[in-house]
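Protein: thioredoxin-dependent peroxiredoxin
Species: Aquimarina brevivitae
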Amino acid sequence: MSTITKAPSYSEGLKELQNNLATMLPDEALAVFDTDAKQLQQTHTSILQKKVGDQAPLFSLSNAVDETISLQSLLKKGKVVLTFYRGNWCPYCNLQLNQYQQVLHEIKALGANLVAISPQSADASLSTKEKNALKFEVLSDNGNIVARQFTTVFTNAESSVSAMAALGIDFNSFYTDDSQELPVPAVFIIEQDGTISFAKAIDGDYRNRVEASTILSALQEKNTVK
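Structure follows.
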């Protein structure tokens, strides 16, 4: 149980991040993003497309250095913790991935490998990996082909895209298409036989993410049952 007590707290990190953003961003932009997040929370109440007990769809995607990585090859090495995130520009994604990196050793010790998937281009995925010093695979799911099999995919609000542009962030530059579609963040644990043993999305509000400690608890519980 000691590994779980060492896990960073996303909820605490979120408070610090939001305090920092409040000092960095204009009130108008913060209001747009807050309205968008609350609307998504109300709209997306049934998020997961795959549940515990389901078989995970097999897939092959490019990683940050344009190598093809398949779920089948990953499962040969152990169980897989799969997390879907929005993009390199999203501070909440960076916070989440950074915290997952901090418990990567514990995840591996519990017999699993961590993989993060977004609809970003390989270049943007590489930027994500470098920015957060990630030591796990970051895969590019162009068009959200894989994401929509696991979680909900939606079109980013034009108001948020415009607010980002006003801050000097070109949303579409991170992606290979102009669909402006994003996945609702979600985490899955896939056993070596392809069965999903853990599936969780907090809600439609992209600021809310699955805690690292929750993932460790789920991995430990499964190992204890065995």
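Remarks: The first helix runs from residue 2 to 5.
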